Amino acid sequence: MSREKKPRNQNLTIPNALSCMRILLVPFFAWCFLRGSLTWAAALLVLSGLTDMFDGLIARKCNQITELGKILDPFADKLTQGVVALCLAIRFPMIGPLLGLFIAKELLMLCCALVLLKKRRRPGGAKWYGKVATVMFYVSVSVIVVMDGLHLAATPQAFYTVSFVLLTLTALMMLYAAFRYSQVFFTLLHSTDEENHLDLPDEIHAKKGGPPPAA
User: Fold this and answer.
1) Residue 191 gets which letter from DSSP?
2) Which residue has the higher pLDDT, 167 or 117?
3) What is the dihedral sign for C-alpha 172, 38, 88, 45?
4) Distance from CA of residue 156 to its chain's centroid?
5) Residue 84 has pLDDT above 70, yes or no
6) Do residues 11 and 68 lie in contact, with contact meaning Cβ atoms separated by under 8 Å?
7) What are phi and psi of 125, to 5 degrees?
8) Residue 133 class from Cβ within 10 Å (0-12 exposed, 13-18 middle, 19+ buried)?
9) Is pLDDT above 60 for 210?
10) Phi and psi for 63 in degrees, rounded to 5?
11) Which residues are CB-contacts of 40 (< 8 A; sequence separation ≥ 6)?
C-alpha cells in the first residue's frame, strides 16, 4: 500500500525565506551602525536591498506568490526602513525632520494595511513605484553611510548637502508611492469583489492541493 504524500505548505518558499532573512538582518544593522561599524552596516544594508529585489523577482518567475508573502514583504520593508531612519536620525540630527516625515508616511501606510486586514480585505501586492522608492532609499542611505564611514566628503557642509539632496529625492518618490498606494487602499476598502476577500488563518495555513479532507 503506497503511503499518501503529505501536502507541502505553500508558504515555504524562497521569497518568503528572503523576507524573513531581511527581518533578521535589522537588529544586526542597528547594532553595527550604532557601534560605528559603518562598513559592516552598509554591507548589511546592501544585502537587505538585494534580498528585497530578488524576492519579488523569484516569486513572479517561479510562481511562488503567496498571501503570506504579500504581508511579509512590505512588513520587512517597513521594519528595515523605520530602523534605518531612526539610526540615521540619532547619528545625523540635522536630517531628522526629513526622516520624521518618512517615518510618519510609513506609519500611515502600516495603519492602512491593518485596516484592510481588519476588514478582511486582501492587501495589495508591491507595485513598481513602491519598489523604486525602496531601492532609492537603500541607495541613498548606503551612500550616506559609506561617505561618513570613509570620510569621502571634503567638508561637513558637502556631506550634509549630498545627504539632503539624496534624501529629498527619495522622500519625493516615497510621497508619490504613498499617494498611489492610497488610491489602491480606497479601491480595496470599498471593493465588493469576492477575490479581494481575505480569510487570513486559512491563507497562512494554505496547503498544496487544497484544504485537507474532512474527517
Assistant:
1) -
2) 167
3) positive
4) 31
5) yes
6) yes
7) -70, 170
8) buried
9) no
10) 55, 50
11) 32
The C-alpha cell 512590505 sits at 74
In this structure, are residues 188 and 196 in contact, taking their beta carbons and an 8 Å threshold?
A: yes
Q: What CATH fold (topology level) applies to the domain 14-204?
A: Four Helix Bundle (Hemerythrin (Met), subunit A) (1.20.120)
Angle between helices 128-150 and 67-91 (to 10 degrees): 30
Among candidate residues 189, 49, 25, the one with its CA nearest the CA of residue 111: 189
Q: Give Cβ neighbours of residue 150 (< 8 Å, ≥ 6 apart).
A: 39
Q: Pick the closest to residue 25 from 87, 83, 72 (CA basis).
A: 83
The whole-angstrom separation of Cα 129 and Cα 180 is 8
> Which residues is 207 bridged to in the sheet?
9
Contact 137, 77 (CB under 8 A): no
Cα distances (Å, whole numbers) of residue 121 to 75, 85, 101, 180: 17, 29, 27, 18
Nearest to 101, CA basis, from 153, 51, 50, 137: 137
pLDDT digits 0-9 by tens, 36-69:
887 888 889 888 888 887 777 776 777 766 767 7
CA angle 86, 109, 56 (to 5 degrees): 90
DSSP 196: G
Cell numbers linked to 42: 552598509
- The 3-state DSSP composition of the chain as helix, strand, coil percent (nearest 5) reads 75, 0, 25
Task: Determine phi and psi for 13, rounding to 5 degrees.
Answer: -125, 160
